[in-house]
Each structure stands twice: as structure tokens, then as C-alpha cells.
Design goal:
alpha/beta, Outer Surface Protein A, domain 3, Rossmann fold, 2 domains, 13 helices, about 40% helix, binds zinc ion
Length: about 350
């Protein structure tokens, strides 16, 4: 294995070495005798094996056994500072260029036992069922395609209308009157022919309408419109299949999203069961307000990208899902300060696995 130092800057400061890989954080390593600085300098000369690294250190006057050098490299790996040269790419120049930013993003999370190519590979092997390709779903599809998610199944039953153009950038004037899923699938194929995409033109009126689509999916994601019960239907279909669910929406300047990690977080049904019966002025009129919803582009794009980012957490495991069993609400009016409300857990939930 040839070891390579990730992009970083370092500087000796007294008996310490300061290392910068991310402007948000400076690593401080103890370095009384300057040997850690010598190690960074030796690695900075380019990819090398442990044995070659040992030789470079010796040439710099640092004489250590191969076991010591290997232990030092493993310590740097634990800090996320080095990686294996051959695992930095997907091994195909065309693909590497296509996924340049994706590979760069996951570089920060790469370790010897989980290289950056594996994170991107996880996305390329994933199958996401997208519920709704309207306001949030339109930008979600674009984000998932950009990440290189390998299979997309798109479900919707709307046709393209000119009113959609304010926030749904998958569609063109030539698409007016056509089923959205067909146009969305065409967009994906034109964007990246490597992505396998299926269009399902279907109304969803109960969990069973989703059963055949959820089976085999790694994740269900979308922006749901229709009755509030649509959240319960998607939740039941996903949780019964053991597939994570990520859903987002918007009202006015407000963005909300949540996810369900089946068997690990409470689900939407749990929360629904524990919710007080709506009786207030806002609850009684919420349905009317939804009709007048104004999903403009800047909001729709943010909802779709938040859903996609949470989806990426589930699909790659690069970090834990942040909205599992939690309603996260952000409002443009107060600068997107998150307001988090955890779901109420229900030990007797009829949907959650026992
Ligand atoms: Zn539940």
C-alpha cells in the first residue's frame, strides 16, 4: 500500500506541530523532538510505502524501526490525515472527473478501512425511491443525480403546468401537459446516462400503493403533498420494509424536514399517536393555508438539498442522520436557526418493528 498525505498545511510551534486540514479546526500534535514534523515532511514528498517512508526519515536523520513508522502512520490514519493512494479514485478517469467534487467531499471522512472511493461507490450502488417530483422533489432529484445515486425510481401523478416553473427546475415549457415523472426521468437520463431511472405515474392513496416500489429500495425520500395522511402512508410502507424515510416540506418562508430510521428512531405513526387532537385556530386552518402554499425556487431548492443531505447520511454512513425521529424546522425569517422537536415515541406503535 502506498500512503499519501491528505491535503493539509503544518507548522512547528515550540514543542507542538499545528496541522490544518479544515479551516474550522486546527489539530495540535505534541512534537518535542521534531520527529512528527519530519514525518509530515517525509510524507509531503509524495506517496510512499512504509518502508520508503522509513528510508526518507532516515535520510532526514530520524532513525526509527519499521514498526514505529507503521504505528505513526496508523496514528495519522486515526486522525484522518493519510489515505491509501490507489483508493482515492474510482479507477476510471472519466468517472473520477465526473465525481471529482463527491470524491473530494468524502476525502475528509476517508480512512484506510473506508476509502473515499467506497463512499462514492455506496451512492452509485444505491436505489432511492423518490416520492413526488414537484416542489421539493424536483431539486431532490437533481441533488441525488449530482451525488451519483445509481438507481432512482420516481413516483408522481401530476402533469407539468406553467405554475410549476417558479420552483421546479426539472421542467421546460415543451413539457407542459406531460406527466412529471416522465419529464423528470428524461432529465436524469440526459444529465447522467449511467443513472438507472424508472418513472412511475401513480396516485398514492394508501401504504399498499407503495409496497412494490419500496421493496428493494435503500431509501425512500421526497416532498409529500396531498392529505396529512400521506406522511403516514409513506412512513408505514418504509418502516414495514425496514427502509429509511426522509421527507421535507415548506410553508411560506418555513422549511421542515424529518427522517425515520426504522427500528432505531420513533416513526411518524408513533408521533401521530401521541399528538393531541388538533383543535386550535392554526390547526383548523392549516389545510387551507397549504392550498395557498408558495413553493418558490429558493425555498424548494433548500428543502430538496436538506432531504438529499440527510439521504446521503443514510446511504453512506459518513455521519449519523441528524433528523432521525425529529421534526427540524428552519425559517428564512430568523436566518435558518433550527428548531428541533423530537417525535413522541410509542411503545405500542402498530407500525414500528417489535
Ligand atoms: Zn412507530
Amino acid at each position: 500500500m502506498r500512503i499519501v498525505l491528505k491535503e493539509c498545511a503544518w507548522e512547528s510551534s515550540g514543542e507542538e506541530l499545528l496541522v490544518l486540514t479544515d479551516p474550522r479546526e486546527v489539530l495540535t500534535l505534541g512534537d518535542e523532538d521534531g520527529q512528527v514534523a519530519a514525518l509530515f515532511a517525509a510524507l509531503g514528498d509524495g506517496p510512499c510505502t512504509v518502508s520508503e517512508l522509513q528510508g526518507r526519515l532516515a535520510a532526514a536523520g530520524v532513525h526509527r524501526g519499521e514498526g514505529d513508522v507503521r504505528a505513526a502512520v496508523e496514528a495519522l490514519d486515526a486522525l484522518g490525515l493519510v489515505e491509501c493512494e490507489s483508493d482515492r479514485t474510482l479507477g476510471d478517469p472519466g468517472l473520477d472527473d465526473r465525481h471529482h467534487s463527491n470524491l473530494a467531499f468524502f476525502g475528509a471522512f476517508a480512512r484506510f478501512d473506508r476509502p473515499r472511493s467506497d463512499f462514492v461507490g455506496s451512492l452509485r450502488r444505491s436505489h432511492v425511491l423518490v416520492l413526488g417530483v414537484g416542489g421539493a422533489g424536483s431539486s431532490l432529484v437533481q441533488c441525488l443525480a449530482g451525488l451519483g445515486v445509481g438507481r432512482l425510481t420516481l413516483v408522481d401523478r401530476d402533469d407539468v403546468e406553467s405554475r410549476d416553473f417558479a420552483g421546479q427546475f426539472l421542467y421546460h415549457h415543451a413539457d407542459l401537459g406531460r406527466p412529471k415523472v416522465e419529464c423528470a426521468a428524461e432529465w436524469v437520463r440526459a444529465y447522467d446516462p449511467r443513472i438507472e431511472v424508472r418513472a412511475v405515474d401513480r396516485w398514492i392513496t394508501c401504504p399498499d400503493d407503495l409496497k412494490d416500489l419500496v421493496d428493494g429500495a435503500d431509501l425512500v425520500a421526497g416532498g409529500l403533498d396531498g392529505p396529512p395522511e400521506a406522511h403516514l402512508w409513506a412512513n408505514e410502507a418504509a418502516v414495514r420494509a425496514g427502509v429509511p424515510l426522509v421527507v421535507g416540506g415548506m410553508t411560506g418562508s418555513q422549511i421542515t424536514y424529518y427522517s425515520v430510521d426504522p427500528g432505531r428512531s420513533p416513526c411518524v405513526q408513533c408521533d401521530w399517536n401521541g399528538r393531541p387532537t388538533p383543535g386550535g385556530f392554526v390547526e383548523r386552518n392549516r389545510a387551507k393555508l397549504m392550498i395557498q402554499n408558495a413553493p418558490i425556487g429558493p425555498l424548494a431548492m433548500q428543502v430538496g438539498s436538506l432531504i438529499a443531505y440527510e439521504a446521503m447520511r443514510y446511504l453512506t454512513g459518513f455521519e449519523a442522520p441528524r433528523a432521525a425521529g425529529t421534526f427540524v424546522k428552519l425559517d428564512l425569517r430568523d436566518g435558518l436557526v433550527p428548531d428541533r422537536r423530537p417525535f413522541t415515541a410509542d411503545p405500542d406503535c402498530p407500525v414500528c418493528p417489535r
